[in-house]
Amino acid sequence: MDPLSFYQQHITSNSKSLKKVKSYRNLITLSKLLVFGAIIFLIYLWIVKSTLPLVFFSLLSILAFLLLTIADVRILSHQRLLEEQIQNYKNEIAYLQGNLSPFSTGRMYEDTDHPYATDLDIFGENSLFQHLDRTVTAPGKEKLADWLLVLSQNPATIIQRQQATRELADQPVWLHYFRALGKLHPTQQLDSSFFRSWQKESLFFLHPGKIRIFLYTANTLTIAGWLVAITGLLPWSLAFCLSALQLIILTIYLKKINAYHVRLNTFLKTISNYLPLVKAIRQPFFHSPSMQRIQDQLFAPKNGNSLKAFSRLYRIQNALDQRGNILIALILNGLYLKDFHILLCLDQWKKTYAAYIDNWLEAISHTDVLISMAIYRFNHPQYTEPLISTSVLLDAEAVGHPLLKGKWNVTNNFKIDTLHQIYIVTGANMAGKSTFLRTIGVNLVLAQSGNVVLSSRFTFQPMALFTSMRTIDNLAKNTSYFYAELLRLKQLISLAEQEERLFIILDEMLKGTNSVDKINGSLAFLHKLLHYPVSGLVATHDLALGELSTTIPSHFFNVCFEITHSGTDILYDYKLHQGVSNTMNASILLKQMGLI
Predict the structure, then answer these.
(1) Given a cut of 80, is residue 215 above it in pLDDT?
(2) Could you tell me if 7 and 91 are in contact, meaning their C-beta atoms sit under 8 angstroms apart?
């Protein structure tokens, strides 16, 4: 299925549906105005004539108005959902055409000390995160970043993510339906410390049984007082006194209730806003182990049944929101102490479900990330699902850089059989060395996070990844460029001592020192790396490093990017070749720019 055609087709069909929905809503609005006018007229007649039929028709008109209002709310919800889905499809078309601006850059997750994130453009403008992120929950966004920053080395985990995204990618309408729901019902990142303290603290009412007995007694007396007063058997003053007494009791607790409501408001709204997402996850029948496990985590009775819990909390939150209407609050609290009933329900909800919330949010955020990855997979049908190997370390055919488009994205073949094999990459300036290094690195990140890769075939062993390509100094920490390079290499050794397999990507080691010192230091460091479970790529302009393939041929291999030039014109093919490059272009480039 061509993604561009799919999005255009669904924009068209949803736009037609939206037009019908808007027409239907206009009809409902007109009907509400007419019914409201009828209500006013009937009430006027009832006041003037006070006949039983007028009372009946007045009540019938009020009921009709309420039903029309409910229908209006539902149709408005459907309208907004269609509008959000259309916008989602438009954003995806923009993405396919090279415009990433609708999507998050993930800059909040940047860490210059991370083993590879900065070098491989995991976050920032036109980053891997911006290509991938379609999450609609704060925990989901954080989990996606975590999966990109901490690569899975568990084959079972990677395979299960692949299975889930493969299954989900076959349901693109549902994927964007889920996203539209999430954007219409935004959730925030919960304050974990606040959540933990709320879980542990006492219920609002320490003796709920006694409170219920008091409420049922007081409510029965008050409601009965009003009913009797309506019949004329008792004076209205008695009913007013009973309601006033309830409001006085409420006033005693009002400050504590308001403080509790304010403290819990954001938390309750965030949790209750998960209800539409939970309903959406409930609908499809999934076959992949990951999605089946998520459904079990959310809906199995032994795990608390999140749908029932979120539905109850949603009603509780709506009831709490109605406290803002002073007139309604006075009437309902005066009649049956509504605030007390709400707090009793909230206490019961907490007692029954609070222990399950962590697992539910984990399941929802996991789904959110898998949906993002499935949309990425759907958007790139030409990409390949990587295969996990037990024999070869890395074998990629026609591998390209996922962040580059068009003619600049030249593909290459590359293979490393085992650990302790290091490929020295040489080539002229701008010939493609750094792009190739990032091509391998970014595709490894995609593969080990469970995503598809830009390659016709990609086989790999799960392993740790480390890069050193964009070392910078830090004046605030009094760190020179060369010392920053040394710290980066020290970080590499520290990681190599901890990992079973480490793939390294280094670009121009020790740039901050003189050429002789640089060569000697680089040679010594590469020899040292052979003592660790390391393999990878080392790009350099120092052709002397190419001699390692002669002195230690079982561990060092030479590949290069060649150029051709005829005095002033330079031709780049960006293709990987065997051997050491001997072509240079610095002088030609300086002349072309008028610098010499």
Answers:
(1) yes
(2) no
Q: Answer for the pair 229, 221: CB distance below 8 angstroms, yes or no.
A: no
Please give the model's pTM, rounded to 2 decimal places.
0.90
Burial environment of residue 387 by CB neighbours within 10 A (0 to 12, 13 to 18, 19 or more): middle
If one counts every other C-beta atom within 10 angstroms of the C-beta of residue 327, the result is 7
How much is the average pLDDT of 351-364?
A: 92
Question: At residue 101, what is the residue type?
Answer: S
The four Cα atoms 538, 540, 542, 544 give a dihedral, to 10 degrees, of 20
Give the closest residue to 385 by CA, choosing from 442, 323, 322, 456.
Answer: 456
CA–CA separation, 359 and 309 (whole Å): 13
From 458, 467, 462, select the one nearest 537 (Cα to Cα). Answer: 467
Mean pLDDT (whole number) for 478-500 = 86
More confident residue, 372 or 541: 372
Report the alpha-carbon distance of residue 412 to residue 399 in Å, rounded: 5
What percent of the chain is modeled with pLDDT above 90? 59
CA dist., res. 118 & res. 297, Å (int): 35
Instruction: Give the model's pLDDT for residue 309.
Output: 93
Residues 6+ apart with CB under 8 A from 447: 158, 386, 453, 458, 460
Residue 304 burial (C-beta neighbours within 10 Å; 0-12, 13-18, 19+): buried
Smallest CA-to-CA distance from 281 within 293, 272, 271 is with 293
